[in-house]
Amino acid sequence: MNRKQLLAALALAASASCHAAVTLQVTTSVHFEPTKSATNLPPDSKTTAFVTLADDYIAAKSGNATTIYDFKNRRRVVLDDANKTYVDYSLYDTLGFRVFEMRSRIGMNAALAKAAIPDFKPPRKVDLEQELTLAEDSASVIDVSTSGDTLRFTSEGIPLAAWSKHGAQPGARDVAHFAQLLRYVQSIHPQVLARLAEGGVIPDSLTFTTNTALAPVTVRMDVEKVQGASPPAFTLQGYAPRQATPAQGALEALVDRMAAQTPKQLDALRAAHPCDTEAAYREDQLLDTMLGRVECTLSTGAPMLTFTPAQLEQVRASVPVSLAFGATQTTKQEEFEASVKTLSGLRSQAPRKAYVLKLFEANNRARLGQFNESSQLFADVLEANPVLGGAWKDMGDLMIMRFDMPAAWRSWDVGRRIAPTLPNFAYVNQLESEMAKRHPEYLIY
């Protein structure tokens, strides 16, 4: 089955109005193979997951955690079954990580090859696609063969996957759903995954081999107890949004708190942090005045409140205003260090709105690679004004730099709830649209 056929099959499955679900048990064993250059490897591990392949969601329970893949709303909800709490994530964060990681690996490998480092052997394209379960094209050649009751997949003679021809046959829809679960939880080449999805069987056992930069990894999955079921519709009844404590991380606690806000509570927060009006203009506090008006634009997307000609002349003549906004225009790496010192030094001249200066400083420190300092500044900013939508967008950008995609999308999602029309989020919306267009297989169920 090619990619278009797979998407059509998944779309057909999604359109079915009623279908009995399937439950099954999956035991996963992981082994890292030592090499000459890699001996201090993670120990072998084994986990068991109890899986439900329902009409509009997949649930996978392992230990005290249950992960719900909600394809209808493009969400991934992680339940803490012991504490009866949950965290709501975006399905885009998994795809986003793999897209950005793929770009990063390709760029890094090209740089290493150009540097002509001795003994550097660039990874094969097919191995990178297998590791990230992502391919931008179908150029990689994967050979399929049969050995007894086993179907094997190799590339240039190197194993990628194998599975038993024997297994449960609950129906094409359920097999496609099983393959969709593996897309999120295992490293499998998309071509191999497509073959599994259209095979008509949930195999008794599957083996996947990933040739990572660290060491070859072999994953064996044993599937049993496949049976029909009629689970209830997915609900969060009995669970409350997780509320991390500041000791677990200031930003984590802040995001949890804001993610749990109801629309009514968000309205109350907006009312508690109104935009400055013309009456807030202070000739003796021009930096504060300017920052207040910028804050409003970054919170609501509304055009900045205009100045009278006389006021504008005063603002343009203000040295603190000139220094502050000059520091936000920095583009050269060697100038960022001076800019953060300027912004930090100006805080005392903005008694009401110093946290807006911290927002500018947080962005500049991120560009210096000072991620911890930047994170603390974002926490300060959003504690001062939790409905400053632009700060949520910028904090998500910081998390992208840190390759913490779940945190990035949580920040962006909070910001879009607070200020859904803020132009700053156009980039995020476009990013999601492009990913959905290039890799729809991640989002169709």
From TrEMBL:
Key words, A-Z: Signal
PROSITE patterns xrefs: PROKAR_LIPOPROTEIN
Range of residues in the leader sequence: 1-20
Signal keyword on record: yes
Domain of life: Bacteria
Protein name: Tetratricopeptide repeat protein
Origin species: Duganella vulcania
